[in-house]
Design brief:
The complex is a heterodimer. Chain A is mainly α. Chain A has helices spanning 2-8, 15-20, 26-60, 84-91, 95-126, 130-140, 142-145, 148-159, 166-175, 183-186, 188-214, 217-225, 230-241, 243-259, 262-267, 280-289, 298-322, 325-328. The longest helix of chain A has 35 residues, at 26-60. Chain B has helices spanning 2-31, 50-68, 86-98, 113-118, 168-173, 178-189, 195-207, 226-233, 250-265, 277-286, 297-307, 314-320, 353-363, 366-376, 395-400, 416-431, 437-452, and strands at 33-42, 73-82, 105-109, 147-148, 151-152, 155-158, 164-167, 217-218, 246-248, 292-294, 321-324, 337-338, 342-346, 407-408, 456-458. Chain B is globular. The chains are: A mainly alpha, B alpha/beta.
């Protein structure tokens, strides 16, 4: 009954219903197929470039495929599959360091920049002159739209040793701090977080700003009339009303940071000390795709990547529970009246 | 009427000439076949560009030879050369081969020969070489680096020494006289100045403020061939000559890791691991912040061209930098260095390996090889090359040539990659203070056995 009603209202009835119908006509078939035709390109692209690679990576993670046996090892045969790679990961002497680095990197970047700084910028720029706020937000987009290699070269120039390094030469030097060392060697984590945070903050900034702008002005006006301070307005009106974008940004940016490594690779390549700034995704890349003498282990690297996917899924489930995602996506009660 | 007749004749003549030209071109095209030979090389621009550029000149010569010999084939070169990292460079070849797109000529480090020969991606050249006597010009010892399981799989392209460089100005600040500085390479060669003597000097330099702590002695900042020379200096072996398997020697390994542990923890050195090459390492050594460092002869050209051009390039460097062999581990011991020859390999997917080898023969001669040697400060690979007029012009090449008498190589074993990764991780952990020397050895033994099983011999 409900389905029939949907169809009458212009909803999409399943193709199977149409096929069971007695009266066929080409135009009706065309009408029924149209939505699937529109979906097909996306489905093909996702299947080709996401699901199939995902399955291949998953299978590879159970094999010992590497540069020495490529073209020789029949990796697709279950006889060549084992859990050795996973055992190697969890018994790796440096596994705790890499895991710790990943957690520190994600937590600090997320807290201070991708969510914290993003929220701060959004709040400030929506509470000042509209044009100035817009210009300020546009400036914060620059790190995101700058090509990553150029962006990292800029940071290297900033962190360079005296007299070339900009921070050393114009900031620390005149203040008499340090002895002009290469700052990527002395404080690599500061730079890893800054570099990623400056890019990451803009994403949350845009979403938070638009969410704040969308809050009807009457609420804040009413709160002012009631004598609320700016902080109280933010705490009791703005923040509760941007809960949904807050969940989205936190979840999305956590997963994004977990899998990001390109900036770290270009900046420190996991150094300067052994695995000092090496995060999980970078290890997967190093193991699977690059090493000085070409010790390239596709199987082992895939296992690192698969574990990362599992960590990501667990994190996403935790977020959905903590933020009570189910309640957030319920239809607004007002619409039922 | 007469004019018309003349015009008609001109048109007829023009048409005839045109037809003859077209016919000639068609007939020439039918008689000759143009073959594209792909050359893939890794080269740091602009110093090492002759690695590939020599082939462009060689193609003209080969085409002349082919024409004279009545061979209808003509070659044209598709040259791809850049400064890619070794790992991706290797992956590109392996995956390219998998896709049926391997280059005809692949110029790479000799240590990849074992793995590629085993996988059947390159061809053995032993028999084919006989057709090109110019290959007899290559210094006999270098063929060892391109041999695997009794066959020759590659043609050496260049060689180098990895000297211990020292900063003369900093030694003077430390109180060394010009005579003492000038005598240092000789003392190293005789085994009178050892690795620990070097560390003592480095420690003194750091203690007196001549260099900062950590800057007494530097190696390269990342994994690479240089470390193997130190392992050899302490009596280590990497290959079992009887079985061809990789070898790790616990006793030599312990001395090797103790040396680097001491260097970092006791002697104020080794503040170099993990540094960015162009951001910190090159500026550090070329900027007179480091007393002793291990580098390659090819870096001499790099420092002159990229880092010290404004200060006077090579003339500044001759005044301020000196070099000797890597010192012996003990008094009276033998110093060493390590050569990592690049080699031309021919892909088994090449349809014309004879033409590829003919091109390699053309670039394996005094003129082309010397052009590359001088521009990149790599050592020559040919007999009597030091007598060649243009080679003599390079002071560095002449003064470092004796180092080839002390040189060592890395093994051509398919599993050198994992071996090198594990032994280097232990070294980096030792330098960082994460491992004691004994822990480093245990880590290596455990890692090698787990990774390579019976493919490695632990002694």
């Amino acid at each position: 009954m409900k389905r029939k009603k949907q169809s009458e209202e212009g909803g999409i009835s399943p193709l199977s219903t149409f096929l069971k119908a007695k009266k066929w006509s080409f135009s009706r078939l065309q009408g029924r197929l149209a939505p699937y035709t529109f979906l097909a390109p996306a489905l093909i692209v996702i299947t080709l470039f996401f699901f199939i690679p995902l399955v291949i990576v998953f299978i590879l993670s159970f094999t010992k495929l590497d540069i020495t046996n490529f073209g020789i090892l029949e990796w697709w045969r279950p006889a060549n599959w084992s859990l050795d790679n996973y055992v190697k990961i969890f018994t790796n002497r440096f596994f705790p360091r890499i895991l710790g680095n990943t957690l520190v990197y994600v937590a600090l970047t997320l807290a201070f920049f991708n969510v914290g700084m993003a929220l701060l910028i959004a709040l400030i720029t929506t509470h000042i002159n509209r044009r100035v706020g817009f210009a300020f937000r546009a400036l914060w987009l620059l790190p995101r739209i700058t090509p990553v290699v150029v962006y990292i070269m800029m940071w290297k120039a900033l962190a360079g040793p005296a007299p070339m390094g900009i921070i050393n030469n114009y900031l620390l030097g005149p203040l008499g701090i340090g002895s002009g060392e290469y700052l990527l060697n002395t404080s690599p984590w500061v730079f890893v977080i800054l570099v990623n945070g400056f890019i990451g903050a803009s994403f949350g900034m845009i979403l938070f700003s638009s969410a704040i702008e969308a809050i009807p002005k009457e609420y804040s006006t009413a709160s002012k009339v009631d004598g609320a301070t700016t902080w109280q307005t933010i705490r009791y009106i703005v923040l509760p009303m941007i809960k949904w974008p807050f969940l989205f940004v936190t979840t999305y940016q956590t997963l994004s940071l977990l899998t990001s490594f390109e900036q770290i690779m270009l900046l420190t390549d996991g150094g300067p000390g052994l695995y000092q700034t090496e995060v999980w995704a970078l290890t997967a890349y190093h193991r699977a795709l690059t090493s000085y003498f070409g010790n390239i282990q596709w199987g082992y690297g895939s296992a690192w990547a698969v574990v990362l996917v599992v960590i990501g899924i667990i994190m996403a489930i935790i977020y959905l529970r903590v933020f009570k995602f189910g309640e957030l996506v319920q239809e607004p009660k007002i619409d039922r009246l | 009427m007469k004019k018309l007749r003349i015009r008609s004749r001109i048109v007829v003549v023009a048409l005839t000439v045109g037809l003859l030209l077209i016919g000639g071109a068609i007939s020439y095209a039918q008689e000759t076949e143009t073959i594209t030979i792909t050359v893939r090389a890794r080269a740091k621009p602009p110093m090492e560009n002759w690695r590939g550029d020599n082939f462009l000149l060689a193609a003209e010569e080969l085409n002349a030879d082919l024409k004279t010999a009545g061979d209808p084939r003509r070659v044209e070169i598709e040259l791809i050369q850049d400064n890619m990292e070794w790992g991706p460079f290797l992956s590109e070849f392996v995956l390219g081969y998998g896709a049926g797109e391997a280059p005809d000529i692949w110029l790479t480090g000799h240590e990849y020969i074992g793995a590629q020969a085993e996988a059947g991606r390159i061809i053995a050249l032993s028999e084919m070489l006989k057709e090109f006597p110019t290959f007899n010009l290559i210094i006999d010892g270098l063929w060892n680096s391109t041999s695997y399981k009794g066959k020759i799989w590659g043609i050496p392209q260049d060689a180098e020494a990895r000297p211990l460089y020292f900063n003369k100005a900093l030694l003077k600040k430390l109180g060394w006289s010009n005579t003492e500085i000038a005598a240092l390479p000789g003392k190293i060669e005789k085994g009178e100045f050892t690795l620990y003597d070097m560390l003592e000097t480095a420690k003194e330099a750091a203690a007196t403020g001549v260099v900062e702590i950590g800057n007494g002695f530097w190696t390269r900042p990342k994994n690479g061939p240089d470390f193997t020379a130190f392992y050899y200096a302490f009596g280590g072996e990497t290959i079992d000559s009887f079985t061809g398997k990789l070898v790790f020697d616990r006793a030599a390994g312990l001395k090797y890791y103790k040396f680097f542990y001491d260097a970092a923890q006791t002697y104020g050195s080794m503040g170099c691991l993990g540094l960015d090459w162009s951001g910190a390492w090159h500026p550090g050594v070329s900027g007179s912040k480091v007393l002793f460092w291990i580098g390659g002869t090819w870096q001499w050209a790099e420092w002159a061209e990229k880092f010290l051009k404004e200060q006077g390039g090579e003339s500044y460097m001759w005044e301020n930098f000196g070099f000797g062999l890597i010192p012996a581990a003990e008094k009276g011991g033998k110093p060493n260095t390590l050569t990592h020859p690049m080699a031309f390999l021919i892909s088994s997917q090449s349809k014309y390996p004879d033409l590829a080898l003919a091109l390699i023969a053309k670039v394996t001669n005094y003129g082309p090889n010397t052009r590359h040697a001088i521009a990149s400060t790599h050592l020559g690979i040919l007999k009597d090359q030091t007598e060649y007029k243009f080679y003599k012009g390079s002071r560095l090449l002449s003064e470092t040539l004796y180092m080839l008498d002390y040189t060592t190589f890395m093994p051509n074993n398919p599993y050198w990659g994992p071996y090198s990764t594990i032994t280097y991780e232990a070294l980096a952990a030792t330098v960082g203070g994460d491992f004691t020397p004994q822990e480093a050895v245990d880590f290596v033994v455990d890692g090698l056995q787990r990774e390579l099983g019976d493919k490695v011999i632990i002694r």
